[in-house]
């Protein structure tokens, strides 16, 4: 038998971009939470029992009957024209300014690819969405964090920062932010758009949860304010990303980007190199569900998440010890917990898992480190009984860490 050749040094052969890639802390925790006895507040998963399974079945049959083999064929990179037209009409922009993506994560990755050069300054919230950091990191940005409070990004701090810092891009989740659940208030939205426009900073508005408001009044999107500021869809410095994953079903992986024509043009080229196009059948199925099923599904999901958020907040007030702070979301899927100084939520996770409850430690959501005493809780996919037991177990865990 010929002796086995030594394996190449694969690590040495990796690109610099690959070396900058990191694993998702959330995905690693989700591996643990697959155990049936673990109550998970970790993953931001839509509630599967609310998925419109029968409606998707009927839509699939209708699409295959109407389109036949065309539903199973390659399609254009830009996306299924009726789907783009529907999105464009809702936003009051041409369909040509809409690019369909295979999930919002692809949108963030391709936006990073076409916008970020190594060393570019990218402004992010502190904390910010971990998936965006993962998407942008391989392209070598220099992150600068923006302080946040219950009103969202501190735009006074942004104004001072832009006097001395030349930034390429600002990334924000203004509605029910992941991870904090906070919402950027209306006054700050307008100032943010005006400041970034004045200083020539592009804005990526990531809005997967905007339709899931269960209390309070909606504010204009940054994209809408950007249109007002620019006066022309192709002069708008705000780029808008959204998805059908949180409002309809995540498994179809249909999302989109609204942007000025030069950016859409480059996204088309980047997507051609990534996956050619989002699956044709999936886009057609989503289009079939837009007018009737989607509005009803949004109402169903809003009601359920609102009830679960209220239940979790009620139990937190009862079960968590004094000195613990938490946000009160007006929509979406998450709330944010700040523990007393000195408690490390990453180290505490092992104790929580021993009580069969999981969460996501907060530190991975900070681009420049910190946040060791924070955690993200998701209420979207937990039952009332799991919320009651899980919050009680977390309360015991936190009290134990304080001792």
What is the topology?
Layout: H1 10-13, H2 16-19, H3 25-32, E1 39-40, H4 53-67, H5 81-91, E2 98-102, H6 104-115, E3 121-126, H7 130-136, E4 142-149, E5 152-153, H8 155-164, E6 169-172, H9 186-199, E7 202-206, H10 222-230, E8 238-243, E9 254-258, H11 261-274, H12 280-289, H13 293-319, E10 325-326, E11 334-338, H14 345-354, E12 357-358, E13 360-361, E14 374-378, H15 384-402
Parallel strand pairs: 1-12, 3-4, 3-6, 6-7, 7-8
Antiparallel strand pairs: 2-9, 4-5, 8-9, 10-11, 11-14, 13-14
Description:
With 403 residues, the chain is of the alpha/beta class. The protein has 2 domains: 16-51 and 295-402, Alpha-Beta Complex (Aspartate Aminotransferase, domain 1); 72-291, Type I PLP-dependent aspartate aminotransferase-like (Major domain) (Aspartate Aminotransferase, domain 2). It has 15 helices and 14 strands. Helix 10 links the parallel strand 7 and strand 8 (238-243). The longest helix has 27 residues, at 293-319. The protein is globular. Belongs to the class-I pyridoxal-phosphate-dependent aminotransferase family. It holds the Pfam family Aminotran_1_2.
